[in-house]
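anyone seen this seq b4? input:
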Amino acid sequence: MPANTTDQEQGATAISTEFSRYDQVDKPPYHLAESADDADAFDEDFQLSTCDISQYLLGNAADKAAFADELGAAMREIGFAVLEGHNVDPALINRAEDTIEEVFTSVDLQDKLRYRAERHGAVSEGYFPIKGTSEIHPDLVEGWVLGRRAFDLDNDVRCNPADFWASPHLESIFRELVEAELPLFQPIMQSVLQSLGCDPHLYDEKLTNPNLGLRLNYYPPINDEDQASGAGRLLGHEDIDLFTLLPAPAVDGLQALHPNGKWVRIQAPAGSIVMNTGDYMQRITNDVMPSTTHRVSPPRDPEHIGKLRVSIPLAAYLRPDEMLEVLPGLVEPKYDPIKVITFHTRTTAKFYGDDYAVEG
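predicted toks r here
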């Protein structure tokens, strides 16, 4: 969908409450762009919790309980944590990151536009041009969202990579990374559920051959005009999923909004994975675990402004016809049960236009 220039110009100075009619969970107010915030709006002392998931993957019952408590506490506090011990080979991450530039630069714009993003189920999959991620965000990023079918993960449905990739020979590189991260979905959800006092296996079936979305983000170097425009590399937003796994990017800029109203700079060591919870999780946990607002801003080091930045977040979704319901055993539910496709598209209509919403 073509970006609306007027809306995008407003988006660079907008406050989130201007779009709150689209939200399906409670969210705090914030300015979409960093340039709108005061200089003292950062908590420079806060550090994300680092959780060793090998405790859950390899440990005994006590180890699993300790990890669940630690991860659960981090998710309650800010909805972000750094995962170590995840068993994803850093070489896979490096290889995928090194290949992203080729995905976006080896073919011209007209070829990429043949894959322009469209809704598939609840999720918009395909190519997003720079400044075209959203009708309200003039984001300085190109993106490519790829679901299960783009990686031919289902044996009963054979897919042609050329239907999803402008450079189909690159598909195997990213499929290998996805297949390495997928085994983390169930243990993470089991840990979250255990920390809430729920049956840890409540979502096992939902996360067997799960719905997913890998987003390739290509942030070109920032020029003077873009820097002066007030646009961010990726303006403030929340993820609409259960949780997101992001191999720690090499170039800084990721920031999260702490409940204290200040922004936190996310810094994670190479080879680690940054995890954050999304709107699905906030809904089913009755607001116990927030879908934390985050953004990508220009790097602090002026020498890095002219550097390319890439990232590869993997979203854990649910299938479109499944229901989002407040987990059993929590306090009086604030939210009624709702079908995933309705919940997801009502929310993302904020980015893609009101006619994007699907009812039932």
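Residues 5-356 form a domain with the Jelly Rolls fold (CATH 2.60.120.330). The radius of gyration is 19 Å. kinda curious what u guys think
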